[in-house]
């Protein structure tokens, strides 16, 4: 996972010369500014941005659009916010703020010192604003997303001169399968620049990614093998450990950045490599260890010859001892459906699933009630996938995020040019999209 800190800050005189060359000749002399910064400035120039003066307006979400974005990325936001509060405690009274942005550069959540938040508002550094590189030029949030790397953009390294009062450190956030989910950023007054800030941000991102991994590969409902890896046994169970998810057939399907570094892998290796191509110890050996005292750390060896400590955990399907004889699968034995897969054994959930099964194949509307975050949509999807409509669309709509004036258009569709901001090709409406499904 490459990172670029621009550790030797570019001198202001070189930045001024580079900006002058770009505005007058449309090019940048080689070796005047760091290569990564040069590429970002040229991308910003090619996007039609001007370093000085007024800039074209960048997109800014309405309250309803921001609410919809928060709903769509609620898992990321839910796990990021406690970590952001922790990070805020470490940077309090430093004239700075902590920011979470999505993959499109839209700022989803921000908090910080009140005085600095007021200054940040003047350049639209606030939730709802889009800070992608193509709209704001070189900046830590947008450039970290474009380059998929952790970096610092300091003072006049920003492409737009109006952002030169900022110093910003950002790091991308990845799902366990390598998908880019967003970016975490600390922005502050350029006079308070400190080289340690990026380290804080990267550590915070690691904490978020660990929580996302644990949720996605929770042994209570995930049926594969989960490995915790570290070069020292004392490091297992800490935020410094590497996490690796292995499917029942031995294919690697999830990892943390630390695990990739320990095993010399890339995100692209997930889904393509098997466990035996990475570790000397076979899959059945690791599975056997899972049925001995789980608190015991054991030693494994990588194919590259490195020694690591590991703790292995399995999902429900693999809980039986590996050496147990396989029972023939009778044709009469029912295959587990989506509802059964989410049944964790909790009595209340089990009762709800039992009641839902009574109407799963009937044209009866079903109302699910519960507090935010308990998994209503997960339950609804499982119900859909367990019924006769499973091969038809499933469409989820957050009605609370729809402004009153747009509810009709969102649900029933509209023609081209029906209202300001409408898509050129129109839209069929969410109800029509769900035709035959749920």
Pairing-aware structural class of the strands and helices?
Answer: alpha+beta
Largest sheet at a glance?
6 strands, mixed
In angstroms, what is the radius of gyration?
25 Å
Separation of the first and last Cα atoms = 40 Å
Please report which band the strand proportion falls in: under 5%, 5-15%, 15-25%, 25-35%, 35-45% or over 45%: 15-25%
Q: Please write the string of helix (H) and strand (E) elements.
A: EHHHHEEHHHEEEHEEEHHEEHHHHH
Mean pLDDT: 86
User: Quick one: overall form?
Assistant: globular
Number of helices: 15
Percent helix range: 25-40%
Spatial order of the strands forming the largest sheet: 1-4-5-6-2-3
Count the E strands. Answer: 11
Query: Low-confidence segments, ≥5 residues, pLDDT <50?
Result: 1-7, 317-334
Which quaternary structure do these chains form?
A: single chain
Question: Keyphrases for this structure?
Answer:
alpha+beta; five-stranded antiparallel β-sheet; 15 helices; single chain; 438 residues; 33% helix; six-stranded mixed β-sheet
SSE topology:
Elements: E1 3-4, H1 12-25, H2 35-46, H3 63-72, H4 74-91, E2 96-102, E3 107-112, H5 114-121, H6 133-136, H7 140-147, E4 150-154, E5 166-174, E6 180-189, H8 197-216, E7 225-230, E8 242-246, E9 252-255, H9 257-263, H10 283-289, E10 298-301, E11 307-314, H11 338-341, H12 347-357, H13 376-385, H14 407-412, H15 430-433
Parallel strand pairs: 1-4
Antiparallel strand pairs: 2-3, 2-6, 4-5, 5-6, 7-8, 7-11, 8-9, 10-11
